[in-house]
Amino acid sequence: MGLFILPMGIFEWIRTKAAGDQSKPALQRIPQHVAIIMDGNGRWAQHRGLPRSAGHRAGLDRVRDAVEFCAANGVKYLTLFAFSTENWRRPTEEVEYLMKLFEEALKKEIAKLHENGIRIRFIGLREEVSPSLQQLMTESERLTKNNQTLVLNIAINYGGRSELVTAARRIAEKALQGELQPQQITEEQISKHLFTAGQPDPDLLIKPGGELRISNFLIWQMAYTEFYFSELMWPDFKNDELYKAFRDYSQRKRRFGKVKGE
Ligand code: IPE
Ligand code: IPE
Ligand code: MG
């Protein structure tokens, strides 16, 4: 008798365990745009008695996994928070290490990303990063600009508030030139002046690292995003965890203010 009342979840679990990743039940609904705050690298390393830099390097493997997972599951936009406008407040040594790591990773991965149809874009104030990194950013965007599988936005020197300030300045310029009347400043107009112009807002935000905050990430764009927080540190956030986040998302009721959820 007891057997009959076992929750379906158990069968699903056994099936998944027995046959590995392939047998995971298909996801009902795939987010079109996924945003990830890749947090917890430093603590991951410290828990192991390693320097924080080792955590940043370990986090890179998860970037590769996330891009593959999202591309394989039909996600169209993936936005990764790599360095915030506030992260300049860290020790110079750590900031320099991160910047070098971005350059190294980009040089190493760009050909493979291109081969796999990934279009790479950078969001944030790029004028403030080193000229060599800026050059790599521009070259990778140019190389991959016609790719269609997945748009990969990497947020470097990105802050949601600084993005809104930049947008406000651009809009004010247009108003001064007489190209735009105050009544024409709509929500759509503001969206059009953000770094993510032309892209849909994130459907799902994933934040490992155990903390419940968004750290100035995509503050305008995430007005109706579904949040998924995890206690795991980013270097431990393997594809099984991404799958869990996606499964959780697919069970959410998104109402957008209406009575009935979608
Ligand atoms: C996120 O990991 C990576 C960056 C901010 C560049 P952290 O470096 O913030 O790791 P914790 O939060 O200190 O563990
Ligand atoms: C957010 O992480 C920025 C990135 C992951 C790049 P932080 O570790 O900088 O965020 P806070 O300061 O703890 O909120
Ligand atoms: Mg952190």
Model description:
The protein has a single domain, classed as Decaprenyl diphosphate synthase-like (Undecaprenyl pyrophosphate synthetase, 3-Layer(aba) Sandwich), CATH 3.40.1180.10. Helices cover 43% and strands 14% of the residues. The protein is built from 8 helices and 6 strands. It has helices at residues 8-19, 41-47, 52-72, 92-115, 131-143, 160-176, 187-192, 239-250, and strands spanning 33-37, 77-84, 118-123, 150-158, 204-207, 226-229. α4 (92-115) runs parallel beside α5 (131-143). The protein binds 3-methylbut-3-enyl trihydrogen diphosphate (2 copies) and magnesium ion. One 3-methylbut-3-enyl trihydrogen diphosphate (IPE) is lined by residues 38-43, 83, 87, 98, 209.
SSE order and pairing:
Layout: H1 8-19, E1 33-37, H2 41-47, H3 52-72, E2 77-84, H4 92-115, E3 118-123, H5 131-143, E4 150-158, H6 160-176, H7 187-192, E5 204-207, E6 226-229, H8 239-250
Parallel strand pairs: 1-2, 1-5, 2-4, 3-4, 5-6
Please outline what is shown here.
By secondary structure, this protein is α/β, with parallel strands linked by helices. The chain contains eight helices and six strands, in the order H-E-H-H-E-H-E-H-E-H-H-E-E-H. Strand 3 (118-123), helix 5 (131-143) and strand 4 form a beta-alpha-beta unit.
Strand order of the largest sheet: 3-4-2-1-5-6
SS summary, helix count: 8
- Summarize the main sheet: 6 strands, parallel
Structural class: alpha/beta
- Give the overall pLDDT as a whole number: 93
User: Could you say how many structural domains there are in total?
Assistant: 1
User: Tell me, what is the CATH class?
Assistant: Alpha Beta
Can you say what the CATH homologous superfamily is? Decaprenyl diphosphate synthase-like
Radius of gyration: 20 Å
Task: Summarize the helix and strand pattern as letters.
Answer: HEHHEHEHEHHEEH
Overall strand count: 6
Reported CATH architecture:
3-Layer(aba) Sandwich
Measured between the Cα atoms of the first and last residue, the distance is 36 Å
Ligand species: 3-methylbut-3-enyl trihydrogen diphosphate, magnesium ion
Low-confidence stretches: 1-20
Which oligomeric state applies? single chain
Query: Strand share of the residues?
Result: 5-15%
Q: What is the name of the CATH topology?
A: Undecaprenyl pyrophosphate synthetase
Shape: globular
